[in-house]
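Q&A log
Question type: sequence-to-structure
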Amino acid sequence: MKTKKPPMRMCIGCNERKEKKELIRVVRDTSGNVKIDYTGKANGRGAYLCHKPECFKKSIKSNALSRALEVYVGEELLEQLKEEYESL
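Response status: OK
Response body:
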């Protein structure tokens, strides 16, 4: 009997492939709201980040978060996400 391989995802900050459960998912839901998905199962377009603060900073600097979610992520929203991200 084969064992299932865990799903792998890539961090948009450092571009490392890791198991999905090791990463933080940021999601843009159908109404356009961007938030951190604590369950990893919310509907919408998602992007994954490592728990390292450098990865979050890199994703902002390179505009990777906006590109991955296909929506403009403004300064105010970035600050809100940063606070949530750092509290994890």
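Response note: The chain has a mean pLDDT of 93.
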